[in-house]
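All the exercises in this workshop are built on plain-text protein records. A learned vocabulary of local backbone shapes supplies the integers on the structure line. Once this layout is familiar, the rest of the handout is easier to follow. An example says more than a description, so a record of this kind follows:
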Amino acid sequence: MDVPTLKPKANIDHIVEFLYDNPREGTNDYGVYHRYAFKYNGDEVGLFATDALHAKLAMFHKGDRVNIRKEEYEPGKFGFNVIPYPRSIASKTDDKTKDIHRQVCLKLAVQSMGTPEVIDFEMVKVRMEGFLIILDGLPPDESVQMSPVLSSFLGTDNDPPPIDDDDLLF
């Protein structure tokens, strides 16, 4: 069975999932080629990537999802934007890396409180969770169990943005 080739159209989102860690590479009459295998709209497709597109795709692995978008940057000239889908890169962190992230965030959370007489452990936890969200790139609903204080602080999309620095948590 022949696998269809994905030919991205200009200004259209092409959300794909990598089926393998690396592309199939070889040489033909046109030179070196990089053929990626993706799942696109539920079907397996192939994509022959230019060198520039290959450079953008090479950092992703099997199971990662990205949005490949062909955009016109000058009349008649096109380039590709590769936008990771949420958790693509963060999903590759192993347990050891996650532990290191937690240690770094705990240290930053404690340091951000200055040198108080009494440490407010709930505030340390809130700050640590905030740093973890920033570091791991996880939206709040996918992070570890958040404290009620952080959950209430993050609120909903209807909450007004902070007015000035005094309204920020950190």
In short: The mean pLDDT is 80. The chain has four helices and six strands. Residues 13-84 form one domain. The radius of gyration is 22 Å.
